Amino acid sequence: MKKYNFNAGPSILPREVIENTAKQVLDFNGSGLSLMEISHRSKDFQPVLDEAVALIKELLNVPEGYSVIFLGGGASLQFTQVPCNFLIKKAAYLNTGVWAKKSMKEAKLYGEVVEVATSADANFTYIPKVFDIPTDADYLHVTTNNTIYGTEIRKEIDSPIPLIGDMSSDIFSRPVDVSKYDCIYAGAQKNLAMAGVTVIIVKDEKLGRAPRQIPTMLDYRTHVDKGSMFNTPPVVPIYCALETLRWIKKSGGVEAMDKKAIERAKIIYDEIDRNRLFRGTVKEEDRSLMNICFVMNEDFAELEKPFMEFATQKGMVGIKGHRDVGGFRASCYNAMSIEGAEAFAACMKEFEAKL
Ligand code: PLP
Q1: Residue 141: beta bridge partners?
Q2: 75 is an annotated ligand-binding site residue
Q3: Which residues are pyridoxal 5'-phosphate-binding (predicted)?
Q4: Can you give 99-146 as a three-state secondary structure string?
Q5: Start-end ranges of CATH 3.40.640.10 in the chain?
Q6: Distances in Å between the alpha carbon of 257 and those of 79, 147, 188, 239, 251?
Q7: Which residues make Cβ contacts (< 8 Å) with residue 353, sequence separation at least 6?
């Protein structure tokens, strides 16, 4: 039976990305050695890294004056690394859930943190819209897509200070105005690659201003200066990222990803809204195109388990909601096909018709 992978992350990747990466793992560039066995400094690996950086710049239209680096430590390390490098005195944070809270906690180790707004009052089911941004803060940190709650900020916030974005779960799903950001970071394991690498885009002129001694490994300049080769980079995840970036380019770039994401999400949200058994958990205008969260309507609460079993039988994988939200979450990253979204909507419809 065909399986549809709606996991929140690690999650679906294009089949050809997995196959091409697997080939190189078995025999890298016909060398007879595995990609796992070669030196990251070998003449064949440098072009992999260079092409990946070039494609990121091309796909996101990264302006001059920004560097792209690959680091380990996940997006979680960026919660620390960002304030360590960019927080001079005061930083502003928009609190849209678990990941934002974790990033604020780390920032407090480095200076004053202002929570400009929060949607905690409604279990983070909306994006706060009206708030003051202190003009004397060094940056405004936003989580552009809240993987757990299914909310998304799809347009850059109009901010008098530079933005810093955790784009772990929506990078490369739509165009972004990089010039508004001092830093963008994303753990790779949703829209880009297998887990193990984080992509970071930093504005060069903003580095080296923080009034503290930064440990060498935490200093972005270390990695910018050494082209992500200060220490041994995770070569297999970087290779996997390169394959995904090639696939995105071939598929029409982030504009095409955006179009597909809108179409795909509409199919599922329309069915949630039509179907008497279900309701979406997020305020309509803030619904994420990547993580579609919904629950059973109160009258049908006892059908949660039966629907889960039914959907599993139909090949739907990874649709259990995060424990903080409950219900269901259908994550639809770039590699999810329109057919996958249609199959999911049909499954909901069929379940309703059985009653
Ligand atoms: N930020 C967001 C929006 C996430 O969804 C996640 C993980 O799911 C993280 C940060 C943490 O990423 P990592 O596990 O790579 O540290």
Answers
A1: 93, 164
A2: yes
A3: 75-76, 99, 147, 166, 189, 231-232
A4: HHHHHHHHHCCCCEEEEEEECHHHCCCCCCCCCCCCCCCCCEEEECEE
A5: 15-250
A6: 27, 18, 16, 21, 8
A7: none
232 belongs to an annotated ligand binding site: yes
Query: Whole-prediction pTM value?
Result: 0.98
Residue type for position 81: Q
Closest residue CA from atom 3 of ligand 1 = 168
How far is the centre of ligand 1, averaged over its atoms, from the C-alpha of 346 (Å)? Answer: 30
CA dist 153 and 105 (Å) reads 21
The number of residues in the chain equals: 355
Return the active site residues. Answer: 99, 166, 190
Atom of ligand 1 nearest to the CA of 148: 5
Whose C-alpha lies nearest to ligand 1, atom 5? 147
Can you tell me whether residue 90 is helix, strand or coil?
strand
Superfamily of domain 253-353: Aspartate Aminotransferase, domain 1 (3.90.1150.10)
User: Is 166 assigned a ligand-binding role in the annotation?
Assistant: yes
Q: How far does residue 221's CA lie from ligand 1's centre (Å)?
A: 23
For residue 194 the two structure tokens come to 């297998």
In angstroms, the first-to-last Cα distance of the chain is: 24
Structure tokens at 129: 């819209």
Topology of the domain comprising 15-250: Aspartate Aminotransferase; domain 2 (3.40.640)
User: How many other β-carbons are positioned within 10 Å of the β-carbon of residue 118?
Assistant: 18
Write down the ipTM of this complex: 0.99
Residue identified by tokens 């934002």 is: 100
What 8-state DSSP symbol labels residue 318? Answer: S
In this structure, is the dihedral angle defined by the CA atoms of residues 33, 36, 37 and 38, taken in order, positive or negative? positive
Structure tokens of 307? 């629907």
Dump pLDDT digits (tens) for 264-322: 999 999 999 999 999 999 999 999 999 999 999 999 999 999 999 999 999 999 999 99
Q: 97 in ligand 1 pocket by Cβ < 6 Å?
A: no
- Whether the Cβ atoms of residue 354 and residue 279 lie closer than 8 Å to each other: no
Q: Give span(s): CATH 3.90.1150.10, the chain.
A: 253-353
Task: Provide the Cα torsion 336, 198, 256, 283; round to 10°.
Answer: 70
